[in-house]
Design goal:
It is elongated, with a radius of gyration of 44 Å. By secondary structure, it is mainly β. It starts with 15 loop residues before the first helix and ends with a helix. The protein is 13% helix and 47% strand. It contains four helices and 21 strands. β7 and β8 form a beta hairpin.
Length: 448
């Protein structure tokens, strides 16, 4: 250690205990010096580190003293909408009588009073295309249509503290499309309320309105398909209206599976049956006046189509085969079909804005050919020939109507619909009423 090295010119004659004490003192001094140096280095690191951090942050645009976020001033009132009618459901197709809805607009004054110059509400339909002609053009993306407007006050009015209600009602036309959300576009409805105070403050509120369509299931539909050049015919019975939740039965019957020759006969056997439900979407994206040149002029747009599978299954057993049935034998099968859970299917819709959604039930049957002797002896010999029989049926996906009925069936009968009532009393007789004979009165008394 440095404390043990004697400098030049130091006399070596000294006491050992003094050397030990001196050496111990020097060691303590060195330790203290080293500790001070480490403390000083740590302070310098913190100092310079914070300085560099301040220098690095000096180039940012954020202010040095960041304050709390600015809270907007409280409104003197707020608006709420309370619906009083059942959900808006169109019962039937485009010729539906519509859906009647009603509710209360509530003005809740939180201050002692508020003076309003106007309270207006608008029912708007908003059609949004997800693949517009102009990528970032709001006029190409959104198309807003005002269906109904309400003006609840016509002159400035002062309202005291409390809740004030304004009733409203409207009959939605039945030809309107239902609320729809798909990969190409979406259609939404909503109520937009705006109240303007005397100080030109605007109190706004939006209430979404969901519109549904429920089509009552008609009788089961029977379809016949012929597959030339063979004698095979397929008869399918199914319901033409299906629902997003739940299954439906499909009855399948194939005829003409046996063709007899002199010594042998040709048979067809089903190897596999596949079914699936495809959802087709088509939308025409309109162009705003600024982008008419991209589509070739006014009133034109770009058409987009998509298809997705929303349910499928492969059946390899379960059918009944009868080669001796009248008409060349037959194969019968009944299977349940449904929409796969979790796919969020879109109900059928045809909108004047250009959005169309429809569904198809597709059935594919793989049949193989075999030969067998008419005597019935011996095994059937496969010929190696096979065919894929494919057929499709249009199905309509609709919401369930439940126990609800249309609004026009709930109202009382009109005056002209009231049936003939019992005959009324005679009011123009001025004479005295005839008195029944005494014997009739006695007979009535004896009868009692």
């Amino acid at each position: 250690m440095p404390s043990r090295i004697l400098p030049f010119g130091r006399h070596p004659s000294h006491r050992p205990d003094t050397k030990i004490r001196s050496s111990h003192t020097d060691e303590l001094t060195d330790l203290a010096t080293g500790e001070d140096k480490r403390h000083s280095a740590a302070m310098d690191f913190l100092h310079f580190g914070s300085k560099e951090k301040r220098q690095s942050n000096s180039g940012q645009t954020t202010p040095k003293n960041k304050g709390s976020p600015r809270i907007p001033p409280a409104k003197p009132a707020k608006i709420e909408i309370q619906m009083e009618s059942p959900p808006c459901v169109f019962y039937g197709g485009p010729n539906s009588s519509g859906a009647l809805f009603s509710g209360q607009l509530k003005l809740i004054v939180t201050d002692s009073e508020v003076r309003l110059t106007s309270i207006s509400m608008h029912l708007r339909a908003n059609a949004v295309t997800k693949k517009p002609v102009g990528k970032d053009c709001p006029d190409c993306i959104n198309k807003v249509t005002t269906l109904k407007s309400w003006n609840f006050i016509t002159e400035p009015t002062t309202y005291d503290h409390g809740t004030h209600q304004f009733p409203f009602s409207y009959l939605l036309p039945g030809h309107l499309p239902a609320t729809t959300h798909c990969s190409l576009a979406k259609i939404d409805y909503g109520l937009e309320v705006s109240a303007v105070t005397a100080l030109t403050d605007v109190i706004a509120h939006e209430h979404p309105l969901r519109v549904q369509r429920a089509i009552q299931p008609p009788p089961e539909k029977q379809s016949l398909r012929i597959f030339p050049p063979t004698n095979l015919t397929v008869n399918v019975i199914h319901t033409p209206v299906i629902h997003p939740i739940g299954s439906f039965l499909v009855q399948f019957r194939m005829n003409g599976i046996v063709e007899k020759q002199q010594t042998t006969q040709t048979r067809w056997r089903i190897k596999k049956l596949d079914w699936r439900i495809d959802e087709h979407s088509k939308n025409v994206s309109p162009a705003c006046p600024k982008h008419w040149n991209k589509v070739g002029g006014e009133g034109k747009g770009q058409q987009h189509e998509e298809m997705r599978n929303i349910g499928s299954e492969s059946i390899k057993k379960g059918w009944k085969t009868d080669f001796d049935a009248v008409g060349g034998g037959q194969i019968e099968l009944e299977f349940p079909a449904s929409i796969r859970p979790g796919v969020n299917p879109v109900c059928d819709v045809e909108s004047p804005t250009g959005l169309t959604v429809w569904h198809l039930l597709i059935v594919e049957i793989i049949v193989s050919e075999e030969h067998v002797k008419n005597s019935g002896h011996g095994h059937a010999v496969p010929t190696g020939a096979a065919r894929v029989l494919r057929t499709q049926f249009k199905v309509v996906v609709s919401e369930r109507g439940g126990l609800g009925i249309s609004w026009d069936q709930e109202q009382p009968p009109m005056y002209e619909d009231v049936p003939h009532s019992p005959p009324g009393y005679v009011t123009d007789y001025l004479g005295e009423l005839p008195t029944p004979p005494d014997q009739d009165l006695e007979a009535m008394g004896n009868h009692q």
